[in-house]
Write a structure and sequence with these properties.
Helices cover 54% and strands 11% of the residues. It has five domains: 221 residues, Beta Polymerase, domain 2 (2-Layer Sandwich); 145 residues, Nucleotidyltransferases  domain 2 (Four Helix Bundle (Hemerythrin (Met), subunit A), Up-down Bundle); 108 residues, Hydrophobic Seed Protein (Orthogonal Bundle), CATH 1.10.110; 179 residues, Hypothetical protein af1432 (Orthogonal Bundle); 213 residues, ACT domain (Alpha-Beta Plaits). An eight-stranded antiparallel beta sheet has the order 8-9-11-10-14-15-13-12, sandwiched between helices. It has a four-stranded mixed beta sheet with strand order 3-2-1-4, sandwiched between helices. Strand 12 and strand 13 form a beta hairpin. With 936 residues, the chain is α+β, with helices and mostly antiparallel strands.
Length: 936
């Protein structure tokens, strides 16, 4: 973590106030190629060689140094490109270049601009590097943190030196952070501020009075660091906790490489703590203090090299300090590091899987160090442990050390390989964390988890018990996953550990998503989500096969990352794994079915019109039984909620509940329970009740003016709104009703106007123009020639529009529909794909389904989402004389699936293959032109 000893402390003898000898070892290329310090000094001194001409302008000095800095930066970047994983050499090289520039600036300021041949005791000045620069760890765009140290109050001479030096460095476009302090100031501020104390911990002598630097070393150790180890550790851990809370977990798919969990700051914090407590100068010294073992040191160094390499390439790509590993940057970094597409996965996915594995290792190392500190009484026990400290009775082969479950005899423990699972059972039973020494033992003996152990009935019983019996399966799975026990016991799980899915929809790695899904099940079972998930709560309360459900949850995404459909491959894997977990044949078949069709309910609810009876009938035929329906419903809900923190919403809840309710009705009462006729009669009856103040003549006119699909496609609330909008409407009138639909987390937009070709597309354009995201749409034509359309829309943040915005929204929509604004032209200025989203590959798939609906052809367009897409698609269909009855929009991050229920101009389905090919070609052309426009 630090430079060689001779470069990280003040020298033993007084150093002359001239350009110093800087560290040259372990650089990424020849130091002379980076910066020829002798030649640079000669050139700078040459500018001052003619006393008659006076001191050169600062711009001349900067011109010389800027040219050499540019050359040095380019040389380091080139060498780093050739050796992209040589991160330590890269960071030292940028530090070496910075040392050269800072050293010459100091030389110019003290030797030429403000020479002082005989300084007094108070006019001594020492220049120190602090922070990351002090460690000798710099990325291409890192800040340069300097400390100007004086013995007493700063003098006018020192002020002049500092000012001149800083102006030179600023003109070189270095991002300089500086402070001017006495030793007394350093001690006082270090006591008050742990950030300053940390920076002082890693100061490095650069130039000036060496004796003053040594005195600072001595005073920091004796008057600031000694005896304050515990408070420093607690402060660093509090900072770490706050940082993680702000940046998100290490499993988030766009991590912060510097500040995120498992990132560089965590590694640096580990070293700061170790240096403060154990007085080590390099992480390898922790071997001598029995803090880390050799394999753990290897993990530390590997993680450090990897993370620094990633950060270095990020800075070079951005040309500025950049710490967030966004999607577009991930692709470029993966390419720079030499990753390639293979095994059905993109290079960026292989790169990010390595990233998350290193981040996980950083978490393991953190846990090991913190437990060591607890053993040494340098760190307090966790707060909850201190509050609820009590004696826990553990089984004879275990003992409790600092409230952690430890092993009494390693040899005896390993004599029965099933103990590698039993310890997790004991930890759940007692509520204790597992001691890192026990974790080390487990990790070192994973080879004992072999086929014989997997077939052991006791091992199978314990594993299922961890998921089913102790009320905290998430904790057990996370512990086993972090120690690779889960992948050892179920080898098919190993490929999805730390696997990133390169899209904007999934917020977690596949293994973390799996654990989140099971955590959701636990919350529902504990009645924690009853208000939010009443249906799932009732299903679980009524009694289902929990064992089959939780095993299906564990295996539902196990087939991801291969060339084959992950549901199909997952079912094949489940067919092998479920029996090995001790499940009887009937449950194995249920698990296999659930894994194979775990996306079916989500797809039906989000991609199909569930108001169409055929949708429900087809789904009911696939599900077959109420028991399967119950299991699949809970799995679907937990799966969607496990995708990310904001994925689940009331819109999805309403769709799934409606599909469940209608499917259960069919399963219990037969297919005829949801015919169009029955639905239509019931809808008209409800409308008559709602319009009780209307005359019988007006009610009859309203109920007679609509075709059957209208009655079964909308809720009674929409029927009532349309009745009001259509009442005495003029042919040239456009009537709009905007109303928040809180149950669906959307705003319902109802339109009524005279029908004409392309009207649906114009409405889509009007809504797109005001920035509305359409999540669902229904359009109908009345028998007397009026178009009635209902859209459910959300704002840019995925929420219903606030009531205060609805009036202005309505006015803007009116203008567009009246032709005052040409939607297609106005949308083009807003139809832009953001830079971070351009790295995604979303192939376009267009299918024609004539079986999914009794009276419509379903055209499903699966493609990349963008603001003007729906308008482009609907306009293309309208231009080709396609009547759109309804559109169902399902968005999955950067991917969207738009399903259109359509007829041709004669009211018939599109059976002709030639017509289908023509339409597909037109739709693809519209998509390609739109993407080209949006990416320009």
């Amino acid at each position: 973590m630090t430079l060689p000893q001779h470069a990280s402390a003040a020298p033993d003898s007084e150093a002359p106030d001239t350009f110093p000898t800087l560290p040259r070892g372990n650089l990424i290329c020849d130091p002379q190629e980076i910066f020829d310090s002798a030649a640079a000094l000669a050139e700078i001194d040459g500018l001052f060689s003619d006393p008659a001409s006076g001191a050169p302008a600062r711009s001349e000095i900067v011109r010389v140094l800027a040219a050499r800095r540019k050359t040095g930066m380019a040389r380091i970047a080139l060498a780093f490109g050739e050796k992209p994983f040589n991160a330590r050499e890269m960071t030292r090289s940028y530090s070496w270049l910075t040392d050269c520039l800072v050293g010459i600036a100091f030389h110019v300021a003290t030797g030429h601009l403000h020479p002082l041949p005989n300084p007094t005791e108070g006019e001594r000045l020492t220049l120190l590097a602090v922070g990351g620069y002090g460690r000798g760890e710099m990325a291409p765009e890192s800040d340069v943190d300097l400390l100007f140290l004086t013995p007493y109050k700063i003098t006018a001479w020192a002020e002049s030196v500092i000012e001149s030096m800083l102006y030179i460095l600023w003109d070189l476009r270095l991002k300089v952070g500086h402070s001017s302090r006495t030793i007394k100031d350093c001690l006082r501020l270090g006591r008050e501020d742990f950030t300053i104390r940390t920076a002082l911990l890693e100061h490095r002598y650069l130039q000036g009075d060496a004796a003053l630097a040594r005195r600072l070393d001595d005073r920091l150790q004796s008057d600031l660091f000694a005896g304050t180890e515990r408070e420093f550790v607690e402060a660093k851990l509090s900072e770490r906790e706050a940082r993680h809370l702000k940046q998100g977990q290490r499993y988030m798919v766009e991590p912060n490489v510097k500040e995120g969990k498992g990132g560089l700051r965590d590694l640096q914090s580990l070293f700061w703590i170790a240096k403060y407590v154990y007085h080590v100068s390099d992480v390898s010294d922790l071997l001598d203090h029995d803090v880390l073992r050799r394999d753990e040191l290897k993990s530390f160094v590997a993680a450090e090299e990897f993370l620094w390499a990633v950060r270095g390439h990020m800075h070079l790509i951005a040309g500025r300090p950049s710490e967030q590993l966004s999607f577009d940057v991930q692709v470029e970094v993966a390419e720079r590091l030499g990753y390639s597409d293979k095994g059905g996965r993109r290079a960026v996915e292989h790169f990010m899987q390595d990233y998350f594995r290193h981040a996980t290792n950083v978490g393991d190392l953190t846990r090991i160090l913190l437990t060591k500190l607890e053993d040494d009484h340098t760190k307090g026990a966790p707060l909850l442990e201190r509050i609820f400290r009590r004696r826990r009775r553990v089984k004879s082969q275990y003992k409790v050390i600092n409230n952690r479950l430890a092993i009494v005899d390693d040899t005896e423990f390993l004599s029965d390989k099933v103990n590698l699972l039993r310890i997790f059972e004991e930890a759940l039973r007692t509520g204790l964390l597992i001691h890192p020494d026990a974790m080390r033992l487990i990790r070192a003996n994973l080879h004992l988890i072999d086929d014989d152990m997997r077939a052991d009935k006791e091992a199978q019983r314990i594993f299922l018990g961890l998921l089913l019996k102790h009320g905290n399966p998430e904790r057990a799975l996370r512990r086993m996953n972090e120690l690779n026990v889960l992948a050892a016991f179920i080898p098919d799980f190993e490929p999805i550990v730390a696997m990133m899915q390169f899209n904007m929809y999934h917020s977690y790695t596949v293994d973390e998503h799996t654990i989140q899904v099971i955590a959701n099940l636990e919350q529902i079972e504990n009645e924690e989500l009853r208000n939010e998930l009443p249906l799932s709560s009732d299903i679980l309360k009524s009694g289902i096969n929990r064992r089959a459900l939780i095993v299906a949850m564990l295996l539902h995404d196990i087939g991801k990352g291969r060339d084959i459909d992950h549901s199909v491959l997952g079912a094949q894997i489940a067919r092998r794994v479920a029996p090995n977990l001790g499940l009887p044949k009937a449950e194995c078949e249920t698990v296999e079915w659930l894994v194979r069709y775990h996306l079916l309910m989500s797809d039906m609810a989000q991609k199909r019109d569930i108001a169409d009876p055929r949708t429900v009938r087809d789904f009911a035929k696939a599900v077959q039984t109420v028991d399967r329906l119950n299991l699949l419903t809970v799995l679907t809900v937990c799966d969607i909620r496990g995708v990310g923190p904001d994925t689940w919403n009331n819109w999805k809840a309403v769709l799934l509940r409606a599909l469940y309710r209608q499917t259960r009705l069919v399963l219990e009462n037969g297919l005829e329970a949801i015919t169009r006729e029955n639905r239509g009669a019931e809808a008209k009856k409800l409308l008559r009740q709602e319009l009780a103040d209307w005359t019988p003549k007006d009610i009859k006119r309203e109920t007679a003016r609509h075709y059957e699909p209208y009655w079964q496609g909308l809720h009674i609330t929409a029927h009532k709104v349309f009745a009001q909008l259509l009442r005495e409407i003029a042919d040239d009138e456009i009537r709009i009703d905007l109303h928040p639909d809180e149950d669906r987390d959307a705003t319902r937009a109802c339109f009524a106007m005279a029908d004409h070709p392309g009207i649906f597309s114009r409405m889509c354009g009007a809504l797109a123009l005001v920035g509305a995201n359409i999540v669902d749409a229904r359009t109908f034509t009345s028998k007397d020639g009026y178009a009635t359309a209902a859209f459910w829309i959300q704002d840019a943040d995925g929420h219903p529009y606030e009531a205060s915005r609805l009036k202005r929204l309505e006015q803007m929509i009116h203008k567009t529909l009246k032709g005052e604004v040409v939607a297609s032209e106005a949308i083009r200025s807003r139809d832009v794909i953001k830079k971070r989203e351009r790295a995604f590959r979303v192939p376009t798939t267009i299918t024609f389904d004539n079986d999914g609906s009794e009276i419509y052809t379903i055209i499903e367009v699966d493609t990349r989402d963008r603001p003007g897409l729906l308008h482009d698609l609907t306009r293309t269909l309208a231009n080709n004389n396609v009547y759109i009855a309804s559109a169902v929009i399902a968005t999955f991050g950067e991917q969207v699936v738009d399903s259109f229920y359509v007829k041709d101009m004669f009211g018939l389905k599109f059976h002709s293959a030639a017509k289908q090919r023509t339409l597909e070609k037109k739709l693809r052309e519209a998509i390609e032109k739109g993407v080209e426009r949006a990416s320009a």
